[in-house]
């Protein structure tokens, strides 16, 4: 019997690449899990509208569960909801799209241990392998755009860029992780091999925040 997995889902390229790898390894993805602050109603990971995440889930044909967390009790809220999802979906494990930051992995492993399920990191790699991982994502055929850039890491004219071969060449000119593992940039995936339909989005204003600049992204239609 295949292991049933919950996948931590940001809507960006890393979680999408993790999904792709898990499917190739034969796991059954029972559900996606996305966290959203109670205070804002946007996603914790990238500050996206929940409707964008829901559109991805519909196209992927995988149910998504939004965990509404508080900034002050994020881990406790996450743990409580994972215990519920474990029973609902009969979960064997939870998977994360982290690449090489040990602190992130330690947090996820502790969370999984508390829920008595396995923690999976299908993309785990050495830091120097990140440039190859970006190339792999592009070659796999997924389509993504940049929706957030960190100040002093990438200029805001990168917002809206497609993650493609030209992107791969240009990102290597900057002193950043090519995969943006430390938050140098974030993405939204709108199409690819596991998507049944392309997600139609439109972009709006650039919003300058304390540590980053965000590109407003809206769902243009439900799903084409």
Task: Say how many strands there are.
Answer: 9
Tally the helices: 6
What share of the residues does DSSP label as strand, in percent?
25-35%
In terms of quaternary structure, the protein is single chain
Let me know the average pLDDT. 94
- Euclidean distance between termini CA atoms: 35 Å
Order of helices and strands: EHEHEHEHEHEHEEE
- Rg (C-alpha, Å): 17 Å
Low-confidence stretches: none
From the spread of the alpha carbons, the general shape counts as globular
Strand pairing plus helix content: what structural class?
alpha/beta
Task: Note down, in words, how this protein is organized.
- This protein is of the alpha/beta class and 224 residues long.
- The chain has six helices and nine strands.
- The chain has helices spanning 13-24, 50-60, 74-89, 102-115, 130-140, 165-171; strands spanning 4-8, 28-37, 64-69, 93-95, 118-120, 143-150, 185-191, 201-208, 212-219.
- The strands form two sheets. A five-stranded parallel β-sheet has the order 3-2-1-4-5, sandwiched between helices. It has a four-stranded antiparallel β-sheet with strand order 7-6-9-8.
- The chain starts with a strand and ends in a 5-residue tail after the last strand.
- The mean pLDDT is 94.
Descriptors for this entry?
four-stranded antiparallel sheet, five-stranded parallel sheet, 9 strands, 26% strand, 6 helices
List the helices and strands and how they pair.
Layout: E1 4-8, H1 13-24, E2 28-37, H2 50-60, E3 64-69, H3 74-89, E4 93-95, H4 102-115, E5 118-120, H5 130-140, E6 143-150, H6 165-171, E7 185-191, E8 201-208, E9 212-219
Parallel strand pairs: 1-2, 1-4, 2-3, 4-5
Antiparallel strand pairs: 6-7, 6-9, 8-9
Helix pairs in contact: 3-4
């Amino acid at each position: 019997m295949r292991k049933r997995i919950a996948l931590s889902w940001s809507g960006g390229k890393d979680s999408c690449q993790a999904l792709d790898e898990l499917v190739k390894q034969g796991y059954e993805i029972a559900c996606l899990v996305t966290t959203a602050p109670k205070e804002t109603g946007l996603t914790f990971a990238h500050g996206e509208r929940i409707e964008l995440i829901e559109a991805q889930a519909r196209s992927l044909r995988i149910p998504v569960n939004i965990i509404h967390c508080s900034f002050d009790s994020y881990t406790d809220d996450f743990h409580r909801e994972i215990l519920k999802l474990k029973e609902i979906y009969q979960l064997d494990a939870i998977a994360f799209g982290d690449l090489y930051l040990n602190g992130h992995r330690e947090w996820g492993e502790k969370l999984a241990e508390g829920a008595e399920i396995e923690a999976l990191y299908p993309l785990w790699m050495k830091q120097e392998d990140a440039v190859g991982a970006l190339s792999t994502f592009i070659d796999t055929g997924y389509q993504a755009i940049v929706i957030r850039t960190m100040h002093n890491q990438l200029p805001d004219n990168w917002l809206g860029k497609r993650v493609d071969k030209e992107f791969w060449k240009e990102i290597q000119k900057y002193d950043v992780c090519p995969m943006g593992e430390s938050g140098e940039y974030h993405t939204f995936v709108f199409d690819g091999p596991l998507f049944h339909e392309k997600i139609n989005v439109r972009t709006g204003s650039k919003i300058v925040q304390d540590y980053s600049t965000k590109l407003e992204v809206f769902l243009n239609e439900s799903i084409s």
